[in-house]
Write a structure and sequence with these properties.
It is a single chain. The protein has one domain. It has a two-stranded antiparallel sheet. It is mostly helical. A hairpin with a 3-residue loop joins strand 1 and strand 2. The protein is built from 7 helices and 2 strands; from the N terminus they run H-H-H-H-E-E-H-H-H.
């Protein structure tokens, strides 16, 4: 049983970070509330390790979005987007273990950096369409692909301190981000399959793969 003061630290830290992110325009009002909830739950379940991984993902994505003038997140992330990327890692981590959590966050970071950095590329390529404008849904570019690898690699740094295999986390993170790209066109076919659903499914796939690889 964790002491009361430890449990109280989580909501306080989460509230402070959500407020700062809201002030900087990284989160909308709903997004800030969702971040407060997730930050608290990550602290209560994953402690400093899980919370710092969540913060790292959020900072990477927010800074990359600010550097991309074409980013759709420059107005601040909403609640649905925050929960789509942060809730599946938390739930999967509780059911499967910490390797699910960190691999899912690695996939989220990889996909976010690929989208934001790739959105600034001169051009991109999409399967079935050929050359398209950078930032097109499900498009691929060299800068975006390199950013994808960097995002997965950075979050895999959280694996060794928890006794987890970093290569499995990295591989699962890369696979999840690539899966997100491959399933991106479904957003144009099915009205209910939006970007948030796509993200949630992709990070879940990454977490499941990491659990299998870590066996």
């Amino acid at each position: 049983m964790k002491p009361t003061f430890y449990l109280a630290i989580g909501p306080l830290l989460a509230a402070a970070l959500a407020w700062l992110a809201r002030r900087r325009g990284w989160l909308g009002g709903g997004g800030a509330l969702a971040a407060l909830l997730l930050g608290t739950l990550y602290w209560w379940t994953g402690g400093l390790w899980g919370s710092s991984a969540l913060v790292a993902f959020f900072l990477l994505g927010s800074l990359a979005a600010r550097a991309n003038p074409r980013s759709r997140d420059r107005g601040g992330r909403g609640a649905a987007q925050v929960l789509a990327n942060g809730l599946p890692p938390l739930l999967g981590g509780l059911l499967c273990g910490p390797v699910f959590l960190i691999a899912a966050l690695a996939a989220a970071a990889a996909d976010t950096l690929a989208s934001e950095i790739g959105g600034r590329a001169g051009s991109a390529w999409r399967p079935g369409r050929g050359r398209v404008a950078a930032g097109t849904n499900a498009a691929v570019s060299l800068p975006g692909s390199l950013a994808l690898l960097v995002g997965a690699a950075l979050l895999s740094l959280w694996a060794p301190p928890a006794g987890l295999p970093p290569l499995a986390v990295f591989a699962a993170g890369v696979f999840g981000a690539v899966f997100d790209t491959l399933t991106g066109p479904l957003e144009e076919r099915w009205g209910w399959w939006n970007n948030d659903v796509n993200n949630a499914v992709a990070v879940t796939v990454a977490g499941l793969l990491a659990c299998a690889l870590a066996l």
